[in-house]
Amino acid sequence: xxxxxxxxxxxxxEEDIIEALNAARIDISIDMLNALVDLAPVDTSRYVSNMNVxxxxxxxxxxxxxxxxxxGARARGRAQLPRKYGKVLQNTYIxxxxxxxxxxxxxxxxxxRNGVFTVAFLGVATKYGA
Length: 130
Hints:
Shape: elongated
Distance between the termini: 32 Å
Structural class: mainly alpha
Number of helices: 5
Order of helices and strands: HHEHEHH
Strand order of the largest sheet: 1-2
Number of strands: 2
């Protein structure tokens, strides 16, 4: 046992763990968003402009007229990620509800032969040792 004295309540320890997990979730979410935006085919900018980042519930909205481009999509997505985490473990969702998004994921675009979400997920998972 080595004489170590536990000097923290279990509640405080739990809160520290939840805060650390939420901080890691934000880092992973940013990496995933950046990968998705980088991999997204850009023709009209609709696909990349409809990358929706949300907390604790998926956002399936779609805008036919959105034209944010890569930098705008990154900025809008990052703005949805909280800077303060609270004491509750949260989930991040990144969705894209463009009508042709499923086709892109199947590799129908020459700019994304292996899909977008699949490739981004595999890259980010590898980075974090999953």
